[in-house]
Amino acid sequence: MSKQPRKQRKERAEAALHERHSQVRATLTGDLREEYDQRSVRVNEGDTVEVMRGDFAGDSGEVLDVDLTEETISVEEVTIETADGEEVPRRLEPSNVRVTDLTLEDDLRVARLESEEDSA
Predict the structure, then answer these.
(1) pLDDT digits (tens, 9 = 90+) for 49-104
(2) Strand, helix or coil at 70?
(3) CA-closest candidate to residue 71, choices 109, 110, 14
């Protein structure tokens, strides 16, 4: 990978969908960091997160959607009102949230969390 920021931004913007999974990561709470010995984790639908930045800082809710093309997530209680009065989800960057509870329905995710070689 290049050291030049220009080329790093270009690589990130043009990444394929299967490579964007690593770009949708958020930090874990202190308890989860100690339990899984990892600092951050990929955000999945069903995880509970706390918003740390922006107008909705302090709010928490369940992740409804993860958009890999835009590298954003939508959270349950975080909505904005459109001009015609409709409530729509406010898209958030994963770096602005903290994961407080994980969905462990996926066996592969559990295996990754507990393995030492995948720890970040």
Answers:
(1) 999 999 999 999 999 999 999 999 999 999 999 999 999 999 999 999 999 999 99
(2) coil
(3) 14
The model's pTM? 0.85
Structural tokens at position 117: 């070689």
C-alpha–C-alpha distance, residues 80 and 86, integer Å: 8
Could you tell me which of 45, 81, 78, 90 has the C-alpha nearest to residue 63?
45
Q: Which residue has the tokens 């969905």?
A: 103
Which two tokens mark 81?
């009102």
Q: Identify whether the C-beta of residue 43 lies closer than 8 Å to the C-beta of residue 63.
A: yes
Tokens of 102: 């994980």
